Automatic annotation (TrEMBL):
Top-level lineage group: Bacteria
Protein name (record): RNA polymerase sigma24 factor
Secretion signal, residue range per the UniProt entry: none
Stretches assigned to the RNA polymerase sigma factor 70 region 4 type domain: 106-156
SUPFAM superfamilies registered for this protein in UniProt: Sigma2 domain of RNA polymerase sigma factors, Sigma3 and sigma4 domains of RNA polymerase sigma factors
GO biological process, one term: DNA-templated transcription initiation
Tagged with keyword Chaperone: no
Keywords: DNA-binding, Sigma factor, Transcription, Transcription regulation
Keyword DNA-binding: yes
Length: 167
């Protein structure tokens, strides 16, 4: 998601009102668990409040906060239950539980990836960042980002194929 830079971020309340949904979406993409995502957002904001002048001084405040969100996620060791929606879409007479089972399996496969790999995929596919920007956020190289993404996608493909064989 491309979030335009703010003219002024002096007002932390205004910033949070505007960017909390984006922070939550990113955190949910990283965690795959709603409660943990909420915790990551809260922890990020708690860490940023005393450093708000640094956020204000940043050229792109959202980039600063996005990086902080990813770092909070990567530093957390909280492993909670995977969040699965209780509401499955029923379309064209398909079994609603089959959709929940598929979603649950997909979430478990994503959750099995290392945290750094999940961060790379979330930044690439949710935030729509290029590899160099992801490398900057994670403090690594562009090549390392590409390798992590390739390995993660390959691991997901293998797991998906195994899941299909079992069904």
């Amino acid at each position: 998601m491309a979030v335009e830079p703010l003219d002024s971020v002096d007002d932390i309340g205004g910033f949070v009102a505007r960017y909390r949904p984006a922070m939550l979406r990113l955190a949910l993409g990283l965690c795959r668990d709603l409660d943990t995502a909420e915790d990551v957002v809260q922890e990020t904001l708690a860490r940023l409040v005393p450093r708000w002048s640094m956020v204000c001084a940043a050229t792109y405040p959202w980039a600063y906060v996005r990086q902080a969100t990813v770092r909070v996620f990567l530093s957390s060791r909280d492993e909670r239950t995977v969040y699965v929606s209780e509401h499955a879409d029923v379309a064209d007479g398909h079994d609603a539980m089959a959709g929940v089972d598929d979603l649950d399996a997909a979430v478990r496969r994503i959750r099995s990836l290392p945290a750094r790999s999940r961060a790379v995929l979330a930044l690439r596919y949710i935030e729509e960042l290029d590899d160099q920007t992801i490398a900057d956020v994670l403090g690594t190289t562009r090549a390392a980002v590409r390798v992590a993404a390739h390995r993660a996608l390959r691991q997901l493909a293998v797991q998906t194929e195994r899941h299909r064989e079992i069904k």
